[in-house]
Amino acid sequence: MAVPQHAKTEKPNLLGMNLAEMTTFFADMGEKPFRAKQVFRWLHQGGVDSFDAMTDLAKSLREKLPGVATITAPKLMTEQTSSDGTRKWLLDVGTGNGIEVVFIPEDDRGTLCVSSQVGCALDCTFCSTGKQGFNRNLTSAEIIGQLWWANKALAKDPAANRASERWSQDDESERSARSTSSGVASTASGRGSGSALPKRIVSNVVMMGMGEPLANFDNVTTAMDIMLDDHGYGLSRRRVTLSTSGIVPNLTRLKTRCPVALAVSLHAPNDKLRDVLVPINQKYPLAELLAAIRDYLEAAPRDFVTFEYVMLNSVNDSVQQAHELVALVGDLPCKFNLIPWNPFPEAPYQRSSNNAIHRFREILQAAGFVVTVRKTRGDDIDAACGQLAGQVVDKSNRSRIIKLSHAA
Ligand code: SAH
Ligand code: SF4
Asked: Ligand 1: distance of its center to the CA of 31 in Å?
């Protein structure tokens, strides 16, 4: 059941509003649309969290706003930096729950891995987030708050600032390729309103942290609106990737609502094995999923899907399974990202050997596919994929069930 974002008596949190919502909010107060843009920019480009800091707003409005709205971001609990420059923040989202956000600097980009839920209800058998159970969906403010936080923290980080000189700050060709069909994501005034885009240390966002983004559709798409908005973070749709285990109806909705780059967690070449590894497959089997992906690609900013395939020793990494995978995807435009499985306590799996991964990769490449093997980053601070655990006060009772079954 969806958790209400705000109790009725609570003031709305401006941080989680996209520009259309904020424009309505200000219109309801009798204010002009440009006020919404001003505040939106202060929040997301200026990184401010107080109305007092919005110095170009009329004083009367600055005094009125705290009575009718808040600016509430998740609070920082801990931060860690890996020897390879990867950074991880644990953010407090209340009632004992915490979410993890990871920044990964690479040669040509700085990628932020963002969470969408506290835990995950989908219970994939190889995933530590899934094994922690599920508490609730994150609000749009808590989702965009991760990027808001990371930008603030990274702006003060000399190493991140130096690294970001390596990647392009403003790719006009990407901007002009942006769709006009995604609501406020393509604001009419674009950059013409006079503000320079902020320096972009986070150049890419991947919705690959804790949770299943398509199970929190409204809040995730609202947060992505803000990421894409030129008055917000100004990221192109190619630079925002949503990763899903395959909630087919919501993938179809995403196509019209906010078509960003797509990654799909495949992990198995047939329904029999995928039913076990990714249980949502029992509801939306491979044939339906692949058809929905093909359809999605018509609107996607990249003309291919990235299939993620976690490499599990003697489970899904054989020569025969590689050939089966080639046959399964057929002529669907795709790339593969093989992910060496990251262990966590009491998991019933082992990571595939380097030889097995190499062999698997060669078969896919020989069939003409582009294949990457994910480098394990931030290992020393547990910031690698699938190790994101945060703090989940489980409401699904799953973690209790797991403990009991281990005790039995
Ligand atoms: N729920 C979404 C996004 C979050 S998981 C999804 O499933 O796609 C991000 C990626 O990490 C997914 O491809 C997921 O399958 C993978 N993953 C989960 N646990 C992992 C582990 N222990 N080792 C390696 N990859 C893992
Ligand atoms: Fe949820 Fe994704 Fe983990 Fe599956 S892999 S349990 S969908 S977070």
From this structure: 44
Quick one: CATH architecture of 10-67? Answer: Orthogonal Bundle (1.10)
Determine the distance separating the centroid of ligand 2 and the alpha carbon of 156, expressed in angstroms. Answer: 32
Q: What CATH code would you report for 75-407?
A: 3.20.20.70
Q: pLDDT tens digit string along 84-107? A: 889 999 999 988 899 989 999 988
**Ligand 2 atom with minimal separation from the 130 CA:** 6
Residue with more model confidence, 173 or 296: 296
Six-digit token pair at 304?
Answer: 């291919």
The pLDDT tens digits of the residues spanning 136-182 come to 999 999 999 999 999 999 988 888 888 888 876 555 445 544 443 33
Task: Tell me the domain boundaries of the chain.
Answer: 10-67, 75-407
Predicted TM-score of the model (pTM): 0.89
Structure confidence by residue, pLDDT tens digits, 359-376: 999 999 999 999 999 876
User: How confident is the model at residue 193, as a pLDDT?
Assistant: 37
**What was the pLDDT predicted at 404?**
37
Cα 280 to ligand 2 centroid, rounded to whole Å: 10
Mutation to probe ligand 2, out of 116, 117, 120, 206 (largest number of atoms < 8 A from CB) = 120
Which are the catalytic amino acids?
100, 385
Nearest protein CA to atom 3 of ligand 1, as residue: 208
